[in-house]
Amino acid sequence: MNILGKLLPTTIDFITYRSFSMTVPLYHLQKVSRVHVVDNSKLALDGNVYKRMPRIIHCYKKNNNLTRTRLTAGLGDKVLLAIKGQMKKAIIVGCQQRIRKPNVPQFDKNNVVLIDDDGNPIGTRILAPIPAFFRTRGDLAKIAAIATTFV
């Protein structure tokens, strides 16, 4: 082996000596997660074909006994979206999950429904299935009323 081969490490040597740090996989949505807006409002229809997909920029879910917000949000939680250069509130109605939870449906996309400041949905119809437990939660009853299908 020539002296140049001894000085330059090969790719395999580099990978074996390199220490990678892996984070624990999250089972909810977090900041900068891309989502699909599934209601029929004008902003939602234009935002899904805009040059950037809608992204979560803040999660409103509170911890059990702490006043600060959590970093992740799951089904039925309120989030703040960046959509078409605007900030809008939304509720998560579909979430990709890596671990199967009992009585919680699995979705293949991260879906949200846009709401106004009072909690009323902006659109008049939801175009994707939503979980059936939204009917029993009082704060999500308005979203369940405009949904077409339940899972």
Q: How many independent structural domains?
A: 1
Structural Rg: 21 Å
Count of DSSP strands: 7
What is the CATH H-level superfamily? Answer: Ribosomal protein L14/L23
Which outline best applies?
A: globular
Q: What's the quaternary structure here?
A: single chain
Please tell me the overall pLDDT: 79
Give the biggest beta sheet: 5 strands, mixed
**Helix fraction?**
10-25%
Low-confidence stretches: none
CATH class: Mainly Beta
Distance between the termini: 64 Å
Sketch the topology as an H/E string, one letter per element.
Answer: HHEEHEEEEEH
- How many H/I helices? 4
Strand order of the largest sheet: 2-7-6-5-3
* Overall SS class: alpha+beta
The CATH topology comes to: Ribosomal Protein L14
Give the amount of beta strand, in percent. Answer: 15-25%
Reported CATH architecture: Beta Barrel
